[in-house]
TrEMBL record:
It is found in: Cell inner membrane; Cell membrane. The lineage of its organism: Bacteria, Pseudomonadati, Pseudomonadota, Gammaproteobacteria, Cellvibrionales. It comes from the Bacteria. Keywords: Cell cycle, Cell division, Cell inner membrane, Cell membrane, Membrane, Transmembrane, Transmembrane helix. It comes from Mangrovimicrobium sediminis. This is Tol-Pal system protein TolQ. The keyword Transmembrane applies.
Length: 236
């Protein structure tokens, strides 16, 4: 309890500039922790939804039925994200282009691939949300804390000009106050850096997974488009 009280006294006794630096670092730390928790929950849910959708997709269900199920979920207010969003974008464009008899199989599939690429970019933006802030906190917080430390030490040594006798006991409180800013900068930076590296690696895994799904789904659509056009030519 005494250590906590002495630390609080150091913060309250610091100069206004150092207190401002500490306030900025405290706010940055709280915001980064909020974003860390929010990203953790979002990526965990995205992983679960991707597994559930892949299991449903490869179960042999009719793609039109799978699309209708997604439409029903959307009508009920459930947001469609991740891999299912990519599927819906591709299948919707495929169905629209397949109705145009003048388009060949390659053009139909290429149109569906473009729609899926747009959906992938949109999903990657959702996955990377807040990561730039975490990277900024991780890279700048130590320097902000160091600025507070340098300023505090300068303030302490400036006070020695009016002191009749310069001793360690005279400058120690001021230097201690200043070093608290460095400690707070590291406290804000370390979790942000660790979280950023962890989340960036997960986003890369999701991106590769989405690309793989897009290629596999494109192959299925190409077979369907080829079979559809062959059937139309035979009927004609």
């Amino acid at each position: 309890m005494e250590e906590q009280l002495s630390l609080l006294e150091l913060v309250l006794g610091a100069s206004f500039t150092v207190q401002l630096v500490m306030g900025i670092l405290l706010a940055a730390s709280m915001l980064s922790w909020y974003m860390i928790v929010q990203r953790f929950i979002y990526l965990r849910n995205a992983k679960e939804e991707a597994y559930d959708f892949e299991e449903r997709f490869w179960s042999g269900i009719d793609l039109a039925q799978l699309y209708r199920e997604g439409s029903e979920k959307t009508a009920d207010g459930h947001a469609i994200l991740g891999m299912e969003s990519i599927f819906r974008a591709g299948f919707k464009e495929f169905s629209r282009l397949a109705q145009q008899s003048e388009m060949d199989s390659e053009a139909i599939v290429e149109g569906a691939r473009r729609a899926m690429r747009v959906a992938m970019l949109r999903e990657e933006e959702r996955l990377e949300r807040h990561l730039a802030f975490l990277a900024s906190v991780g890279s700048t917080s130590p320097y902000i804390g160091l600025f507070g430390t340098v300023w505090g030490i300068m303030h302490s040594f400036r006070g020695l000009a009016n002191a009749t006798q310069a001793t360690l006991a005279t400058v120690a409180p001021g230097i201690s106050e200043a070093l608290v800013a460095t400690a707070m900068g590291l406290f804000a930076a370390i979790p942000a850096v660790l979280a950023y590296n962890r989340f960036a690696a997960k986003v890369e895994v999701f991106s590769n997974r989405y690309d793989t799904f897009g290629d596999e789904f494109s192959s299925i659509l190409y077979r369907q488009a080829y079979a559809l056009r062959a059937k139309e030519r035979k009927a004609g």
